[in-house]
Amino acid sequence: MALPLLHFRTAAILALVAAGLGLWMAATHDFRAVPAEVALNVLGWASFMLYGLYFAAMPGPVSGLAWLHYFVALIGVAVAALGIAGTEWGHPLFDPLRVIGALAIALGFVLFGLIVFRGR
């Protein structure tokens, strides 16, 4: 599968997960997971959509670094959102997931910066 399309599909899935979480919070009147929903929307939907647009606009072969970036960024968003939701719901054992997810997200941004400044 082409990398831009994979980013677009991932963005759509993350947006649906965030919307589902939002609907669940509205139905239960329990809004403690709002920070996790925000992470899924901003770091998930928006970032992956922008990554996909970048890769679609830049011609040339896709490097291993671009694939590494995809997986690091995706794991970071998923782990961070899970850690945020768990911690907000009062389970401190999820707090390390917040940190691990944040570090993976930061590494994903560094990898994307390398891709942009070095080329694909």
Secondary-structure map:
Blueprint: H1 3-28, H2 34-57, H3 64-88, H4 95-118
Please characterize this protein's 3D structure.
The protein is an all-alpha fold. It has one domain (3-118). It is built from four helices and no strands. The protein has helices spanning 3-28, 34-57, 64-88, 95-118. The longest helix has 26 residues, at 3-28. The protein is globular, with a radius of gyration of 15 Å. The protein starts with a helix and ends with a helix.
Along the chain, the helix and strand elements come as: HHHH
Q: How many angstroms does the end-to-end distance come to?
A: 17 Å
Classify the secondary structure makeup into a structural class: mainly alpha
Number of domains: 1
Strand tally = 0
Helix content: over 70%
Note the main sheet: none
Tell me, rounded to a whole number, the average pLDDT: 93
Helix segment tally: 4
Strand content: under 5%
Model regions low in confidence, pLDDT < 50 over at least 5 residues: none
The outline comes out as globular
Rg, rounded, reads 15 Å
